[in-house]
Amino acid sequence: VRRDVRSYRELPMNLYQIQSKFRDEVRPRFGLMRGREFIMKDAYSFHVDRADCDREYDNMFRTYRRIFDRCGLAYRPVEADTGAIGGSRSHEFQVLAASGEDSIVSCDQCEYAANVEKAGIGASEAPAAAGEPSPLVEVPTPGQRTIEEVSKFMKMKPHRFVKTLLYVAGDTVVVALVRGDHALSEPKLKDALGTPAVELAPEDVVERVTGAPVGFAGPMNLRGRVRLLADHALAGITAAVAGANKADMHVKGVSAARDLAGAEFADLRTAGAGDRCPRCDGRFALQRGIEVGQVFYLGTKYSEALKATVLDAEGKERVLEMGCYGIGVTRTIAAAIEQNHDDAGIVWPMPLAPFHVVIVPVNLGDERLRTTAERLHDDLAARGIDVLLDDRDERPGVKFKDADLIGCPLRVTVGPRALERDAVELKRRTEKEPTEVPVGEVAARVAELVAAELAGGTRA
After folding, report:
1. 10 Å Cβ neighbour count for 31?
2. Per-residue pLDDT, 82
């Protein structure tokens, strides 16, 4: 693009590819997830200004929603951290599944959803452990370093503790504080600092700043120049416990007003179930998800570094604005299986099923059963239905087990008893019992069911 695109008249441009990619995974995570070879759809868009890039971002976001709607998957588009790829705006498309790699929260009253590390948290009703400040008292805690260990040792709940974490951001030592029962979100910490990266401080830095070994850091009496940030949940806290910045020692009676006076307060913690939504009065529900697609606004991060520019309408040189959009094609299939299965095998959503219907003649040696099954196969194929005929010389139980394992949404069983009544059995993969349908009507009935499910995808 830098080489060939010179004028704003050639923009906007969206370049994409769909092809196999490779990743050096040590081992697959489970099932079909995280294989070393996979199919990916990647796209990059190029624009003369931010407004047009935002337009394309929104267009791709809506397109991705239509794609996953049509796949028949329960999913959530969630606000996400941009990570190493950079940029300032991103959404992940998460297929909801108990085995999901990612934790997401979604509001029970509005459409807000986000990765737990990115999700904003609304104001709490009241500060934790509110009350009058009390004197600071040092308490020996030999060998007790973690919040879990110290809270058990002191017989106090974790929410009464101040967790002190030291990071390095460039040349700055950052002391980040969260409540003992909360987890720090590094993406939120980066946003609060306005820095692209943070790293946990090494032991020598922790000892230099606190005067104590790792595990006994606290927010008071720190040495040297540091930047102190505290999560909003600590505002107003009193009678709390923190590290005493002495080996094998903690301190009781910590008060935000008195002891955290120099701290900057920000939203620093990982969201969880029951937290307040930042956009309404709703509460978060916690879910697991598998990321199958993501859209990014990249801005000028790469185009500026690579000096990719065009001339605008006034003849001035402009750095290109960029967007990035990806869908894991095979990953979407794997996520669909993780979301849709039971003890017997796969339960394919109709739009993704390799075959819409499987026809099972229970006895191939019976000519009438065989010819009926073959005729139904040809009738359905002529209607554009993807149909599988199980013409193996196997027992009926084996065929039924394999049909459930493969997971075709519909099964037509051609058996002697029903055929005596000029009927066959039609069964959805999700149903326990079949329904008898006249042979002359079954092709139309199957075509109707397939068309209805293909037309009406589902989405959480």
Report:
1. 12
2. 67
Element (H, E) at 150: helix 147-154
CB contact at 8 A, 48 and 84: no
The pLDDT assigned to 130 comes to 47
pLDDT for 323-360, tens place per residue?
999 999 999 999 999 999 999 999 999 999 999 999 99
In this structure, are residues 26 and 37 in contact, taking their beta carbons and an 8 Å threshold? no
**Among 231, 290, 272, 268, residue whose Cα is nearest residue 116:** 272
Give me the phi and psi of 288, to 5 degrees please: -105, 145
206-225 pLDDT per residue, tens: 999 999 999 999 999 999 99
Instruction: Check residue 134 and give its pLDDT.
Output: 82
Under DSSP, the state recorded for 383 is T
**pLDDT tens per residue across span 417-443:** 999 999 999 999 999 999 999 999 999
Q: What phi and psi values does residue 109 have, to the nearest 5 degrees?
A: -125, -25
Q: % helix / strand / coil in the chain, to the nearest 5?
A: 30, 35, 40
Please give the single-letter amino acid code of residue 133: P
Cis link prior to 409 (omega < 30° from 0)?
no
Q: What is the reported pLDDT for 89?
A: 87
Q: Which of 348, 258, 313, 390 is nearest to 71 (CA)?
A: 348
How many helices (H) and strands (E) are present in the chain, helices listed first?
A: 11, 25
Cα–Cα distance measured from residue 22 to residue 369, given in angstroms and rounded to the nearest whole number: 47
- Tell me the DSSP string of 241-264: EEEEEETTEEEEEE-HHHHSTTPE
- 57 with 360: CB under 8 angstroms? no
Contacts of 82 (CB under 8 A, 6+ apart): 88, 89, 90, 296
User: Please, which contacts does 122-127 make with residues 24 or more away whose CB atoms are closer than 8 Å?
Assistant: 122/275, 122/276, 122/277, 122/278, 122/279, 123/232, 123/276, 124/232, 124/233, 124/276, 126/236, 127/233, 127/234, 127/235, 127/236, 127/237, 127/256
What pLDDT is stored for residue 236 in this prediction?
87
Give the DSSP letter string of 342-355. ETTEE---GGG-S-
Which amino acid appears at position 411 of this protein?
A: R
> Across residues 245-249, what is the average pLDDT?
95
Reported as a pLDDT band with limits 50, 70 and 90, residue 80 is confident
